[in-house]
Amino acid sequence: MPNPSEAIDVDPTPHQQAAACIPNRILRLPAVMAATGLRTTTIYMRMRDGSFPKAVSLGGKSVGWRAREIDAWCASRMSVSAQ
Q1: Can you give the residue ranges of every domain in the chain?
Q2: Contact, 53 vs 76, CB < 8 A?
Q3: Which residues lie closer than 8 Å to 66 by C-beta, 6 or more apart?
Q4: Rounded alpha-carbon distances, angstroms, from residue 14 to 34, 44, 61, 62
Q5: The pLDDT value given to residue 5
Q6: Which of 14, 60, 72, 73 is 20 to 30 Å apart from 1, CA to CA?
Q7: May I ask the CATH class of domain 23-82?
Q8: Distance CA 15, CA 70 (A)
């Protein structure tokens, strides 16, 4: 049985592994929704009010989000909810 005071190693999720391996990785909307738990309307509403990372244009009507910005946003939300 592990000592409760010892840190427990947690394997990174596939999203975290991919983001760590590929610098400046771009996530499309389904991946952002899966990572954040937010739906499309909420993502775009929070982008408008400045509380969510802005999408970057990929050309035409395609957009994506920088994986590191989404990871940072998720981490900031976890630290807020832990307080």
Answers
A1: 23-82
A2: no
A3: 24, 25, 26, 27, 53, 56
A4: 12, 25, 27, 23
A5: 47
A6: 14
A7: mainly alpha
A8: 11
Tokens 């990572």, located at residue: 35
- Report the pLDDT value the prediction gives residue 81, as an integer from 0 to 100: 67
Cα distances from 26 to residues 14, 42, 51, 68, 82, in angstroms, run: 15, 19, 19, 9, 28
Tens-place pLDDT, residues 49-74: 999 999 999 999 999 999 999 999 99
Q: How confident is the model at residue 19 (pLDDT cuts 50, 70, 90)?
A: low
Encoded amino acid at 56, one letter: V
- The encoded tokens of residue 69 equal 């910005």
Q: Supply 11's token pair.
A: 């394997």
